[in-house]
Amino acid sequence: MAIPNANITIDAGSPGPDRVPSFLEPLWYAIYTNANHEKRVAQQLGQRSIEHLLPLYDSVRRWKDRRVRLQMPLFPGYVFVRFAFRDRLQVLQIPSVARFVSFGGHPAPVPEGDIQSIQNCLNRDSNVEPYPYLQAGRRARVGSGPLQGLEGIILRRKNRTRLILSFDLIMRSVAVEIDDGDLVPAR
To answer: pLDDT at residue 12 above 50?
Structure first.
């Protein structure tokens, strides 16, 4: 059976040298992992040379006879991956990867600003820890310092000020210790 020659056109405009179709452009995505397999997935991504981000924080756990310092995932069950969408099978074939964070059946890219916020918090020598996801509260913006421009919710606990950063796509939040003088009211 012969198939006639068909011309396929995409109604997104012609991809010129300055325009790359979204399936070819590397974007950040969040992937769900099996429970407690985040580090194993990150290791597999590294072995396959796939850019990824697994934010970790230090946690001191008290066991029966001793205290242990552990590196725990900041977002349990999630790993962030940067790749062109056409290469998604390389990620999905990794053992312990469950699926992409999706909306309407399509993987949703994580905003670049959210990834930069996470990296800025981790690169700064501050206490970062998971926090329950928040939407409402007194909002503030960091006016100076390495986290300048980030917006979050102010929390005071144990005579320390923390800024709660919420990431809507994965419905998770983190608390970052910050100096009161660096905060200004959000607009």
So the answer is: no
